[in-house]
Amino acid sequence: MKLSIIVAISENGVIGAGPHIPWKAKGEQLLFKALSYNQWVLVGRKTFESMGNLPNRHYAVVTRSDYTCHDKNVIVFSSIEAALEKLETITDHVVVAGGGQVFRALIKKADILHISTIHTVVDGDVHFPPVPENFRKIFSQYFSSNIDYTYEIWERI
Q: What's the CATH number where 108 sits?
């Protein structure tokens, strides 16, 4: 099963301020919507609650709480390992969309990283881990917006 991480980070590595994304870069979220369309999306509960249940996606939500969801497109798991074990039986590709704990647990297992660097410095309490040394950048494109950003694709070598 292929794991793709999708993340937007500030220049100082921040990906969140509590449950919120501390910027609004016009157009950047369209990348997430396009890359996650009709895919299984693996997220932590807090990330899922803050992003909402987008249409045309299936969600694997990881939580340590007694959280439940009655949506047929959402499966709740008590651990990342349990989620991966089940997902391997139903899909060949999973999009990992956060939050920080999920990224830290899976970055070394990921095959592809889709990283949008938002060209701003913000305060926040959730950070993205460093890109492991066994990844190489294979694509980069700069976007001019209300807050400029650069989209990059990294692959594990």
A: 3.40.430.10
